[in-house]
Amino acid sequence: MPRFAFIAVLIALATTAIAQTAPSSREIAAYDGLFRAAHEGDVTAIRQLISDGADVNARDPQGRTPAHVAAFASEDDALRALADAGADMNALEGRAYDVVTIAAVADDPQIMSLAID
């Protein structure tokens, strides 16, 4: 029985470790292009980058798209611009969260509404 309890505790700890993780300050500093524009809410840059051929569904090393980055940063206008350009609002980032889940955890109804529409 003690072995079962130990295994249960390990599973519980592993499960709680897999949680939403917003981009770190180091990751944000390394962002460029569409990821930087999404994080900063720079709609003009987002539109220009997409017009120039940037992939609206590109992935960072953690599996986040620019839409995930905009959602984590609560940048409503950036998310709207990305959605209008065809960003996949249902895409899952590396830890299996989509934009709606990110917005729900952040208690951000505007982002949730954008992601659902």
Folded structure, characterized:
- The structure is a single chain.
- This protein is mostly helical.
- It has a single domain, classed as Alpha Horseshoe (Serine Threonine Protein Phosphatase 5, Tetratricopeptide repeat), CATH 1.25.40.20.
- The protein is built from 8 helices and no strands.
- It starts with a helix and ends with a helix.
Helix/strand layout:
Blueprint: H1 2-17, H2 25-30, H3 33-40, H4 43-51, H5 66-72, H6 76-84, H7 99-105, H8 109-116
Average pLDDT works out at 86
Query: What's the CATH topology label?
Result: Serine Threonine Protein Phosphatase 5, Tetratricopeptide repeat
Total helical segments: 8
Beta-strand portion reads under 5%
The helicity comes to 55-70%
Gap between N and C termini: 50 Å
Low-confidence stretches: 12-17
Order of helices and strands: HHHHHHHH
Based on CA atoms alone, the radius of gyration comes out at 16 Å
What is the name of the CATH class?
Mainly Alpha
Summed up, what is this model?
The chain has 117 residues and is mainly alpha-helical. The protein has helices spanning 2-17, 25-30, 33-40, 43-51, 66-72, 76-84, 99-105, 109-116. The protein contains eight helices and no strands.
List the defining traits of the structure above.
117 residues; single chain; globular; mainly alpha; Serine Threonine Protein Phosphatase 5, Tetratricopeptide repeat
